[in-house]
Each structure stands twice: as C-alpha cells, then as structure tokens.
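A reminder before we start the practical. When you read a complex entry, don't treat the lines as separate problems. The point of joint prediction is that each chain is placed relative to the others, so the output describes one connected object in space. Small molecules and nucleic acid strands, if listed, are placed in the same frame. In the example below there are two entries. Take a minute to note the order of the lines before looking further.
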Amino acid sequence: MNVLVTGANGFLGRHVVSALLARGHRVRALVRPAARLDGLGWTASVEIFRADLRSTRELAPAFEGIDALVHLAAVVSGGEDAQFAGTVTGTERLLTAMATSPCRRLVLASSFSVYDWSRIHGTLDESSPTEAAPDLYERDAYSIAKSWQERVTRRFAEKHGWDLTVLRPGYIWGRDHAFVAALGQQIGKTYLVMGPLVRLPFTHVENCADLFAVAVGDPRASGQTFNVVDGDGERVWSYLGSYLRSTGQRALRIPIPWHLAFALIRLAYATIFRRNPKLPHILVPCRFESRLKPLRYTNRRARELLGWRPPLDFEACLARSYGAPRAPLPLPGSLRVTDP
Amino acid sequence: MSAAPLKAALIGAGQIARQHLSCLRQLPGVELAAVCDLSPAVAECAAERYGVRSWFTDHAAMLREVRPDVVHVTTPPTSHYRLALDALQQGAHVVVEKPATTTLDEIEGLARRAGDAGRALIEDYNYLFNRATREILRRIETGEFGAVVHVDVLICLSILGPEGFADPNSPHPCLSMAGGAIADFLPHLASLAHLFVGPHRRANSIWTKRAASILPYDEFRAMVDAERGTATLGFSAHAQPDAFWLRVFGERMQATANLFESRVTFNRLRTGPKPLQPLLNGLEESRAIRSAAIGTLWRKFRGGPGAYEGLFELIGRSYRALAEGSAPPVSVHQVLEVNRLVDDLKPRERA
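Here is the predicted structure of the whole assembly.
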C-alpha cells in the first residue's frame, strides 16, 4: 500500500515509517517545512512531503496516489491554544484535503488521555468511558486536544464512509524518551513517587509502531479501536529504578501511598484552590488520576482480533532504550527493505 | 424589572478569545449568544466550554441570524478591519483586540463608521485597567503624585522561540505588519503613554535586530514628546526575565510597576531628615514588593484572570457603560489618538 504518514519524523512517527517499510508498504512522510531529517535513517524510498497542517494552503497533493493515511501529527507542547490549533485544526484541514481524494483508509493515533479516568475502576479497556464536557475542560491541554482530534476524525470518517482505525497508546517510551509524566514529582534529586506499586500502561515505541503497521494492512482492524500497551505494565517503583540506574542518576525515591496523595489533593482542590484549573497538573484531581490512577490495562482486543503480539519483551525494550543504538526491529519473514 | 441582557458575540475563538469568554461568562446582564471561527471544531469547542448558545463558521451569517448587541473581534489583526466594519454596519458595538487595525486609514474608517452609527468602538487597552495602573492613576487624581513629567514603558518578552511569533513552519499573521511581531505590542505601549502624558506631538523610534530569526526586528525603542510630558517606550526580545515595566515620574512621586505581576511601588518626597529618606523609601518599597509577590502567587493558586485582570476590568466596565448608555471606558477619540502614535512609532522601511 501507499501510506501517507503525518508527524513522520516525530518520536513515534520515525518508528512507524520503519515498521511500514518493513511490512512492504511505500511511505510518503509528511513533515514540517523546517523539520530536520538527518539521523532518521530512512531509505531513499521514503518520499518527503513538506507541509504544516496549520497553514499550508494545498494539502490535497499529499494524498495523490495514497491508499491509507496514518495520522500521528499532534502538537504536544506550548499553550492550550497552540496545541488545539496544531492538533485539531490541523486534523480538520488534513481530513478536508483527504475528502477530495479517493483515499478511504485512515489510522489515527489517539491516546489514553481521552478516557474519563475518574469513572473507570478495575480494568481500563476500549469500552471504558471517554471524557466529555464539562469535565473535559478541567483536563490538560493535551487531553483536550486529543479528545477533540478523535471526535473530529470520527465525524469525518462517518460522513465520508471511511475505514477508520483508532489506536490509543498508553505511555510511549523508548530511547531518549524514557521519562514519563507518571513517574512522580521530581524535586531536584528527589522523586515523590505517588503510588509506587501502581502499574503504568507502557508501550515501547517500537512495539507501538508495529501495531500501527499491522493495523494499516489488516482489514480486520477497520472500524475498530485498540488500546496499545505492551502487557500488564511495569510498576512505577521498579520502572523508575531502572530509569535511574540506566541513565546513571543518583536520586532519592520517596514512596507516597496513592490513595493518601489523591485524598489530600482532592481536599486542597475543593477548599484552598477553589477548583482553579490553572494549577500545576499534579494538583488538579482529574489530571492526577489520568497520570497515576491504579488500574489494570490490557491489549487483549489487539491480540484477539489481529493476532498481535508486541515484538519486544520488557528486557529487550530496556536494552534498546538504554543500550548502544541498534538497527530497527528485525523485519518479519521475507519483507525486507534494501538500502539503495 | 431588569433590562434585557446584552447579546454578546465573538469572532475568532483562539487564545485571547478564551479570556474574553471567561470574563463574559461571569458578567451579569450578558448573554453569550454566539461564537464564530473558521474552524468548526474551534468554534464548537468554545461554545461547549463557555456555554455559548450557538456557533458559526461564517461571521456574516452569525451577524445576520444572531443580531448581537456587542461583537468582540479576536481574530489575527490582519482581519480585524473587515470584521469590525461588518459588525458596526450591522449595528453592533465593537470590542476589538489590539492592534485594532494594521493601518491608520483603517482605524479612521472604523472610527467614522462607529461615530455615524452611534456605536462604541473599544480597542483592548487592558493594561490601562490593571490594579497597578489604576492605583497610580488614583494617586495622580488625588494630587499626591504631582503632575506627571515622564512615563517609561518597557516590555521584555522572549518571543524568539520556535513556537509563536518566530515559528519557522507556520508564519505568524503579525509578521505581515510593519514592525513584525513587535507591532502587536505597540498599542500597549502607546495607550499607556497616552494615558499618562496625553496625545503625542512627535515621536522618534529605533528598530533593530540583535539575532538572526524570521522576525524583521527584535528590539524597539522610542522617545515621545506629548502634550503633558514625555515618554520612552521599548520592547526587548532579549532582555530577560519577562517583565512589563511601567515607570511614571511625577513632580512629587515616582511609581514603578511590573504589569505582568501585581507589583507596584512608590517613592515619594518626604519631610524629615534627608539621610533617612532612602531608608524609609526602601522599607516601604520592600513591604510593597513582598506583599505583591505573595499576592501574585496566591492569585495563581486561587485562579481568576491572572495577568488579564485589566481585560476583565475593561470588559466589565464596557458592558456596564453600554447597558447604562454612559461613556465607555475607552473612547473612539482615545482610540484614534493612540493609533496615531502607533502609526508614528512604526518603522518606515523594513529592516
């Protein structure tokens, strides 16, 4: 298939491009006009299309000859307005262009942040409730933008009858991105670990990218939503320990029981802080929950429907994240790309 | 029986619009009737979030169907003129974000239209309504400050990062204005100079660039001779940390405020032994700085408009005036005089 990948040079995108190539797809990588592409290790077969989803006037040419779109682009830094404009308005403009093309297949990178964590107990899976107004607007800028991105994409897909697959990754980690927000509050060389035994919904970037590549080519994925996690998830305490060891940091870890921390935050939020949404994330209960709540996670749907298994186990992920740089994942079967 | 609420509508639902909507939502006597944006998601999201009754992507359709009493124009500045003109023609009062227009001709055209239609044209000079500015004004009005001799305004703001004005991927709309990104801040500087020393007679400005970037200029200084005194105005993209310094020099008192915080201090002529004056001024100043610092942090935790306190005050006063039929807090005459200064401050040729 000819696949257009947005956000192709991002942390996840560069691995998705490799995974698509490994499965024999041809890739057109949509990257921003000023993006630097050195060090990505792409073969010359990757076609580059430079555009900014927020402002490039003509996006329709990006879809010429394209069979499927993998939409990963999102703005993950800056203020709420910048994130909304980059992620949601950019998606509107991209999908408006797609609607003028024959392309009907779309895989969207959504996020665990779209779930309504306050209402979920026990196991979080694809049937768990998603966050809606008005509570959505107490969440952080990223969650608001990703929720709206998914909402807008589903509406486009329904209106135009597209085959949509939504993948919702948990915490994507990997080389140079091993620190995730759920590891606690860092104060100098001390980490306040809220809920040290909580399991986190991790997916290593290469495992996550593999599921994107699988979903593009598998018709059983059409119309489905999949959570992307590697397994049960590592516990915060042990993951943080391996992170500190592997990065050579000496730091003090102070465990704080999750329920105690959450009760204090809720009390302060309702009394002293008077439900002020401009507080640091860790002091807003719904944002605290969305990062740290003790739940169970599963990739059962991807396993059962697509027969997917994460290619790398945790030890291999550690080695690939902290060890010497290595080549991309070994390619499955006979589908191999040769460098020109 | 209370009067019917004023119907407010807003065009352009980006960053600054959120401040307008947050304020309007909690104002009594205001009905948030409609919001409009070219992006359906942005418009719908703003409507859902702030409880706005309807949303549009076509401003003409919104003006026609909703017939708002007040229209807030909060789009990028290059589109203000057309949108504000359409709103005035439909019979609405207009609150327009700064810079109200990109040329003097355009603002004069809007002012004429507002005058002919008997409608208010309010440009957002929010820093005139900050607590610190109002406290300085109060002391001037009571006479304790003495006549203002000089005002100095300097904005230090890092705008060279890859997000915002200097985004290399998506050119910021302000870059098309004479002066580039700094032009976006000229109305703040000019409105404060105008407030304290009146309409200007002449102005000289220096526009320079210290670092390579896509911005045409990153430093600006100006000297202004005005009817009641003088002003020095500046913008620096390099001087750090971020601050908005306002210094007002009177015949008996001097005030220093950082309008990004709630800090304002006063130095005054004192009776008593001269050697003690620096000590007394220092003690008074340190007390004011301490209480402002704690107040700023407290407000951050408790919520509220934060650095936009002046905008909330301006919008509140505007709606009260419109409801009562009294003079709005920013007059058309004032808007014209401020914009004449803005025009004189602009660079005559691109760097």
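Discuss with your neighbour: The longest helix of chain A spans residues 141-160. What might explain this?
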